[in-house]
Amino acid sequence: AGGGQPGAGGAPAGSEEEVGRLLAMAEVPEEELNPFQVLGAEATASDAELKKAYRRLAVLVHPDKNHHPRAEAAFKVLRAAWDMVSSPERRKEYETKRVAESELTRSMSEFLSRLQEDLTEAMNTMMCSKCQGKHK
């Protein structure tokens, strides 16, 4: 398949590649799934652009249209991603969650960095039992 020719079993061109791409994301836990990546769209895409991307992919990987043995699994990944951003409310919920997770990750990283600095300083100012001196 590919090269503009129909895929195996008369599936639309490009469908094998899309099934493979979506199946690679099937291993990602749903809460970590990036719907924009799945849909092949920018995070700034409009609702209409997301819908168009979803429909284009749905035609390529839907089990009724694509006879790939794992087309159904690929379609489930696509559907899960679409469900996350299919309405303005769901999309806002997803984006709010991602911002909060990003902020938590940043805060945790800063905390651990400061902790490491503090521990290093503490270790360097402790009394050395071998030479009875301080190492700083």
Automatic annotation (TrEMBL):
CDD domains (alphabetical): DnaJ
PANTHER family in UniProt: DNAJ HOMOLOG SUBFAMILY C MEMBER 14
Residue ranges of every copy of the J domain listed in the record: 34-98
Protein name: DJC14 protein
GO MF annotations, alphabetized: dopamine receptor binding
Gene name for this UniProt entry: Dnajc14
Gene3D superfamilies found in the cross-reference section: DnaJ domain
Compositionally biased region (Gly residues): 1-12
Region (Disordered): 1-20
